[in-house]
Request: fold
Amino acid sequence: MQFKYKIAGGDFTNAGNASSAVKKILKQLNVDHTVSKHIVVALYEAEVNIVAHAYSGVIEVNIDKNQIHIILDDKGPGIADIDQAMEEGYSTASPQVREMGFGAGMGLANMKRNADKMLISSELGKGTKVELIHYLKPDEG
Amino acid sequence: MKTIDLVKALDLKVYSGKDFLNAEVSGGYVSDLLSDVMGNAKEGQVWITLQTHKNVMAVASLKDLPAIIVVKGYKPDEDTMKKSEEEQLPILGTDLDTFTICGRLFELLNKQ
Reply:
């Protein structure tokens, strides 16, 4: 099963809509509540990162029996130093974005903590690709 | 304790979502940083904040929080209240500052 969402950079009015849609799908699919909570936190942070930092992006959610594999691919400035970006408290968000309570430098850490596996690749001046993988417990029914 | 009990006991304003005051409140979480709430608030905790923009609704809804309490007489934005009705997740308000309302809420929840 695959779902795709387009994200517009700077559009804070709709930030979180994709995460909200995915949350509803996970509920319909009866995905374990704890797993679903982790996915939602990681996905929301990743979605907001596209809104706050990129020009546009696409979120692709692939659901199969064993895992949920989310790919967030954006066109944007890219990340110069991924290790530095991963440090808690480090952020390049604008003052306006910070005033809204975003840009505290906690997003990537939240993503890493909540995903079973996270992969980031980035090219300066082109964009960033984030993959979030959550494993589903095999159905023992 | 339900949201409606908080509204009565703490004399809170109900800005929006007045038909959805029956959710169970297990505790509270205080932060004005959205990622902090995303990462650390737990289902059933009412969220106390001074943020009034629409994104608080997305966070509260994704985290299954029962309600938001906006402090110091701040009024939520129009589109925030609209989203609150859609999400069936009330926005409450108080003129008190965060420290004071948290103290009262803590006391109330621990009296049970």
Observations:
- Residues 33-53 of chain A form the longest helix (21 residues).
- Residues 121 and 129 of chain A are 5 Å apart (CA to CA).
- The longest strand of chain A covers residues 67-75.
- Strands of chain A lie at 2-8, 56-63, 67-75, 117-123, 127-135.
